């Protein structure tokens, strides 16, 4: 049951093959048995079981709230949750309990979803995991063999998402398959009066068609995404995917996004500038950590921020404040904003030329072993992680990672599809077709329970390895 799609689990709940409580208990058992992965900061076992019990009652009455009723979910620990600690994995917010739910959390609960707990992340999401600012849904999705969707900026409310970079943050969706991503998107998307950046129009949830003919689609292959450091393995898969579309009748053409080579530098200037602004609120006065230093207000501020933030967060605050200094503002921040506009215009021109979807790698390689990972400093590692994904955030476009194959080391790798603004249905329809063609092997979670220090076991892909 833990391998099934959302719709399959929903059908099983309706037919009584499994109860919401049984499903919740199975998930909680798996969380406990894989505790060594450090995936959860907070496990809300008591709350989850109560929610599952309420869901069970609704199913007995024949009145489920929808497809998500009784479905276990997890929320990254930078989304506010009423009654459950929200820490952003930081000492600064240790013990902080929000008085309200983030809009996306509330929407999921209103649909009857069962909240298992809050998942781990880099401190304040300053790394390669989680809500999507520069690739932080698609990158981990590629490394973990799951679907990771970054919707169009403004399609999903950011209210209650503790901000990192306001102009790029988007709540991301991680699911087993593309169909499931569409289901969750349908529950979350739409206008929110508490977030002025959300769309004004009503959003209509959709079911994805089973596409059989891709001959009407034009797939663009951006030549600039053949980036330095791209592994030969990923390059081969990218080429094979392009051939797959071409052989199926789609028009596959090479396109150019000329300002892509400036995007990662532009991204880091704008990212750190907004980080510096957002982190200014954590001063130890109103909420969060407060130092015992009491010599003066200034010393208390300094000690609070030194104790509350880690080196990475402090480094980005310093960089951002440097770029925002009066003497640097024009040369860095304003110039980066102008380059951002050029990057966005590149995408506009390509899509206006008739291209429907862009196909690119998601990551430069498969997941890097830990001992190799720690050889690089955070800035270098972040640059490498985000280089293929952050341009979509700066342009506000929807993008999705689809797990594609296993590397020679047996680790998952994925490819990225980028669509037109607010054209999620078209993007997900093409992604679903591709998903069916590659038949990516399902992760065997039970193996993780038996081998605490082993890797995830997969069935070998028969068609695209």
Provide a descriptive summary of the structure in words:
The protein has helices spanning 6-15, 20-33, 45-60, 103-110, 138-144, 178-188, 232-247, 263-279, 297-308, 311-324, 330-352, 370-373, 378-386, 390-395, 424-438, 445-450, and strands at 40-43, 72-76, 114-119, 147-150, 173-175, 218-222, 251-255, 357-361, 399-406, 412-418, 443-444, 457-458. By secondary structure, the chain is an alpha/beta fold. A 7-stranded mixed sheet has the order 5-4-9-10-8-6-7, with helices on both faces. The protein has a 3-stranded mixed sheet with strand order 1-3-2. It is globular, with a radius of gyration of 22 Å. The two termini are 26 Å apart. 45% of the residues are buried.
Between the first and last Cα atoms, what is the distance in angstroms?
Answer: 26 Å
* Shape verdict: globular
Structural class of the secondary structure composition? Answer: alpha/beta
Spatial ordering of strands, largest sheet:
5-4-9-10-8-6-7
Essential attributes:
16 helices, three-stranded mixed β-sheet, alpha/beta, seven-stranded mixed β-sheet, 465 residues
Q: Outline of this structure?
A:
Helix content is 40%, strand content 12%.
What's the structural blueprint in terms of helices and strands?
Blueprint: H1 6-15, H2 20-33, E1 40-43, H3 45-60, E2 72-76, H4 103-110, E3 114-119, H5 138-144, E4 147-150, E5 173-175, H6 178-188, E6 218-222, H7 232-247, E7 251-255, H8 263-279, H9 297-308, H10 311-324, H11 330-352, E8 357-361, H12 370-373, H13 378-386, H14 390-395, E9 399-406, E10 412-418, H15 424-438, E11 443-444, H16 445-450, E12 457-458
Parallel strand pairs: 2-3, 6-7, 6-8
Antiparallel strand pairs: 1-3, 4-5, 4-9, 8-10, 9-10, 11-12
Helix pairs in contact: 2-3, 6-15, 8-10, 8-11
